[in-house]
Fold these 2 entries.
Entry 1:
Amino acid sequence: MWTPRPPANCRDSVACEGCDIRGLALFADLTDADLSLEPAIEDVRLPAGATLYRAGDPGAVIYTVREGLLKLEQYLPDGTRRIVSLLRRGHVVGLEATVFDTYEHTAIALHDARLCRLPIGIINRLSEKLHPQLMKKWHESVLQAHECTRDLATGSARRRIARLFLTLAPPDAGSCRLFGREDVGAVLGVTMETASRAVTDLKKSGAVRETGPNLFERDLAVLERIAAEG
Amino acid sequence: MWTPRPPANCRDSVACEGCDIRGLALFADLTDADLSLEPAIEDVRLPAGATLYRAGDPGAVIYTVREGLLKLEQYLPDGTRRIVSLLRRGHVVGLEATVFDTYEHTAIALHDARLCRLPIGIINRLSEKLHPQLMKKWHESVLQAHECTRDLATGSARRRIARLFLTLAPPDAGSCRLFGREDVGAVLGVTMETASRAVTDLKKSGAVRETGPNLFERDLAVLERIAAEG
DNA sequence: CGGGAGCTTGAGGAGGATCAAATCATGTGG
DNA sequence: CCACATGATTTGATCCTCCTCAAGCTCCCG
């Protein structure tokens, strides 16, 4: 049940100026001059399965996903686990730390991930300049949450997982990495066994082809047909 | 399928200074002096069933719910309707208009509602002073969305509707108003028939007692037991 | 080679979808 | 005031999906 924290040694200082996702990031609007006034942003490497933070932890830092995939999970009173959001490249993790003193979810990497670590001190100091981007990132968080309800918690398991495959990677991406069946179940709101059977089913339908462990080639047309009805 | 727009005559100018939900509202931090510089805020009355705005409409105004209940709905490619959020007193509707040029959802009143109408011009003009409250409201929107996934789209229909009853009104509220079964189904991700049967089931279990049309008295202890595992 | 974790597969039963019909509530016109 | 039309809700019957429990399988690692 317990996943280790990322060891301290997977952090690194990096320069924002040349960041490959600067256009997507919170700091998109800042000038190099703005950035030069701030201490260097740390780069966090988070291996698949590692926990970034837990629900209830005091939140003093937010993150931007550079690479990889993270899940946000919460527990129901009866202990049921539910994944309420999947976060990809460009998404911000832990935004609630800017408003509230603890994190709302447990954030765990589903694929090996790289993140920018942004202490909220910096965010507050630059809040005026960051305002438009902050709002955009909040907006993204809401969109992401609604996507989970709308696409991944509606219809049959077959349809849900077809939609998951469609959102897991951009349409032009050659291949598409999935994750453990237990987690697939927790995103779709079904059991692990149903998730497994649904994946098998998509393979048989020719909607996806497994080219490696949890690595799939997708037939977008077939996936879309299934996602929409059947 | 079509619901009429609110007629223009259900608007009224009101003074924010004495607003009964000012503590909950976006303008909580503003002084009376700040407010006196702004044109009066309009009060919108929205009868149950009426549409506030539709997905794709150009968004030039956001709303605060003073009273009543609203749903945010979206459609899947196949036409399936899904309610992705329920908004109550104090919640903000249409926040995305501050970031994007159109609304993301269709917003419809489930109960008779009263809202403050806030043109985004005002929001932008006061954005600096509003910044902390805006962030709080975004945060609320995210919480609300995650609640929908976590509580209302997980487990059996019986458990889902028990949780719906628990969130529909504060614990100390004497009674609790429900809404049409079609909509109950769209919130829970089940059919209307299943929603109807689940309500009947809760009545038989003594978890709720119908005291009028769609008006219920709740037994919180029983509801919580059912919500957690039954 | 043995063990474990994650994944798949199977059989049976419960729960939800679907289609259809009955009931209830409301409003309208005679 | 009643008869009737309309729409929402409830109930019923049947089928299909998904859950549950259990057993096998595969891959990786010691």
Entry 2:
Amino acid sequence: MDKKIFSTFLKERGQRLTKERTAILRRTLSLRGHFDPESLYVKIRATGLKASRASVYRTLNLMCECGLIEKVTKTEHGTIYEHTLGQSHHDHMLCISCGHIIEFFSETIEKLQEGICKKQGFDGVNHTLEIRGYCRKCRKKKK
Amino acid sequence: MDKKIFSTFLKERGQRLTKERTAILRRTLSLRGHFDPESLYVKIRATGLKASRASVYRTLNLMCECGLIEKVTKTEHGTIYEHTLGQSHHDHMLCISCGHIIEFFSETIEKLQEGICKKQGFDGVNHTLEIRGYCRKCRKKKK
DNA sequence: ATAAATGCAAATCGTTTGCAACGGA
DNA sequence: TCCGTTGCAAACGATTTGCATTTAT
């Protein structure tokens, strides 16, 4: 399904679905939640598949362009991505102790945002709401 | 006022308020809204004051540690800071066309977030809500 | 055969750091 | 004098890019 989207996207632009790109796409889709380029690269290597870091970066950019994935946030360790397909919009809680990410969604918050944009004459394309703090586990550990 | 806070903070740690740090502090405080290290550096230089890039980065980190400023977001062009003092918490709209930043605040959204955290057993320390899109001006330009 | 994609290594960009020279306390 | 601080340049880490080589169509 997603593979179809990607290959169509590439074909339209006269680009090719090589085995490296396929490997990267497959591995990316197999991931559940959020991921970053380096760990994706390591995982691909661990599987015995070959694809350079350069190709990983290049392919992730392509996947972003065609809307399969998107950048969630930038941390000191790099960019974090997530899948967009089959995923409705949501926001994130990020544990600053263990890096755990919790997704959530609030229809009310969405509506409020729309209202605020309208008031400002702002044409909102997308948004990110990130709450940083300590997850349940790390809270317990702390005390 | 802010200068007092900074010098006290430094003294407590056995550190010194040098003229470079003073220059950086002053220039930073003179800025209204958001800023990034490089443009701050350029502005300082333009004023004829001397302070190296290294010192700018080092001093901004100190100012973060003592809570005078904080990191708002990371863009492809670097980290964006803002003042914390005398500024109540607020969120941002970021125009992806001209970079213009609009601040806003919604008590309701804040409350909703608290509720969501509680539900997840998450101890929220801080959060950022960033709406990206086109500001009024750029909207008009587009069509 | 042609044009695109690869891997590598070098190049970037923002930021940090090691170090010798400098300067307040 | 004693340490903290500075500026510079080198070091960094994430990402991009130039280029010669490989590969899909």
